[in-house]
Input
Amino acid sequence: MHFRTLIATVASLLLAACQSGEVPAPNAPTPAVAPILTGADAADVHSYAKPLEARVTNVALDLAVDFNAKRVGGTATLDIQAKPGVKQIVLDDKGLEITAITTVEGKPLPHTVGAVDPILGAPLTIQMGDAKKIVVTYKSAPDSGALQWLTPQQTAGKKYPYLFSQGQAIENRSWIPTQDSPGIRQTWEAKITVPQPLTAVMSAPRVGEPQATGRSRQFAFRMDKPVAPYLIAIAVGDLAFRELGPRTGVWTEPAMLDKAAAELDDTEKMVAAAEKLYGPYQWGRYDMLVLPPSFPFGGMENPTLTFLTPTFLAGDKSLTSLIAHELAHSWSGNLATNATWADFWLNEGMTTYAERRIVEEVYGPKVAAQQVALGQDAMNKAIADNGGAAGDDTRLHIDLKGRHPDDGLTDIAYEKGAAFLRTIEAAVGRERFDEWLKGWFSRHKFAPVTTSIFLADIREHLIKGDAALEKKLALEEWVNEPGIPTNLAPADRQAFAEVDAAVAAFKAGTQPAPEVWKRWTTDEKLRFLTRIDKQQPKERLAALDRAYGLANAGNSEVRFAFLTLAVAARYDPAVPALEDFLLVQGRRKFVRPLITALAADKQWGRPIAARIYAKARPLYHPVTVRDLDKLGLGAPTTDQALTAK
Ligand code: BES
Ligand code: ZN
Output
């Protein structure tokens, strides 16, 4: 048999096996073509693709980055696998400007773009006939929701422009024409042409050295393991690299390199701790990219290259649990991936659980216990913010039909999810739980997972017919019911004994002495600032700020916690610091709650929000702008309206 025919036969057998619902043997080698799940709960309401009819298995990009036009453009060559007799394939498209779709030989293929949904974009249906490979020639729109184009002014070096992408959850369809569903894993490769002297990095190993041609350079990348398409990521800028350990390193602008490398000094230890917990790291290198401050998230687990906000650079490694978190996604999320966004808790809850286990290993049990306790505070706040103990959106398995996946991006997924896993661990003991956890990844590596797969796996490999244990765990209640089940393994009440006493004393009128505050860790400071009454008299905020310098704290989390209190108290003296904070960084977790709280306070806050947002909006990434525009803080200018999502 000809080699290619053999590959095609194996692939179609695999497709057939997956369509009949069979799961590959646990320790089978990584298939180049990952299975598609067939269960009703694996159907993705956020993608137009019909992968059981025809699916993309590999994406090959050949793109040029045009900073003047704010577009990436070129070709995407897709490998397709279709059920016998199926002659068309449906891709996801958000605003792509398509000039041609052809076979590799150049024969044009008829295609149509369906009605545009404001959240999902549009289905792109291509009549590919018998073609197994198609070539889409296209450009991204200047208002692509995934891409942020920074001017030199918005970078640390101030000399060169910068581009970066954010794919999760459903943004990549605005720059890559493919099936943008986390259940449709694809291998991929890319050739990226950028102006000299800029460097391109992506979420895959680099292939060869960059090729210089005239005023540009071409970089090549290849991800030979099938990944969910939201994990394809790019950044282009004036980037430098420093080795941190044998398989870890950091990319960032040259001006940031020393600071970033110092903060990330524990990364290699974290990889070792994660492997101890989860099993072998499967992706080769673990590098990180510290982005400019408009990066909309704390971090993003792009495979082989985690993207990070510079706001975690506290100077004392006190915010590096972020690295433990993104690293843990190399297993929970990137190896075993939520099949749809309704199962987002499987990505984030498991990762948040593992993050604290890594922190325990690297920084000790006290630090970890404190972070668990902060997590449970955040969980309780998320319950309150999402309709209380009966709120529909307090379920782990959430209904997102007709809604944006970001509606599920709450601490329910993160903290209720993590609390669920801690509860199971407490019930069966760490040793037994850890054995199950390792097994989970060996059974589901490079595969999509759902809540029902999770439950079935726990029953088969952990509960093993023990009826008393089944009852004790209350699995169904945890995943399907709102609120927090009563079997919750509570956080250690002693973890913050000193701080909690100080909170009580503060209520009675006494403020912690400056030397006490100075001695406290960041987590202790955060416990204090989030546990004192939300509504403080202005004088008390003034006294706190005077004693500890909080409005302009160098630690972004501490600063955020204080500014949250300041907005609630209409504390005018903090407004300049608030404005500065909202203009020097664009992390959505910080800017959205502050601007939203200001906007909700019609008399005092709203005019402040409108004034600051007019200045801040051009600095923020499209995913941040998309949410904040809904607050209706003054009409966007024509130019802004054009780029609004
Ligand atoms: N994968 C998420 C970020 C994300 C989720 C982006 C959903 C878009 C849609 C990432 O791993 C994450 O959770 N980041 C957190 C970090 C944290 C919890 C330590 C963040 O950005 O704040
Ligand atoms: Zn995460």
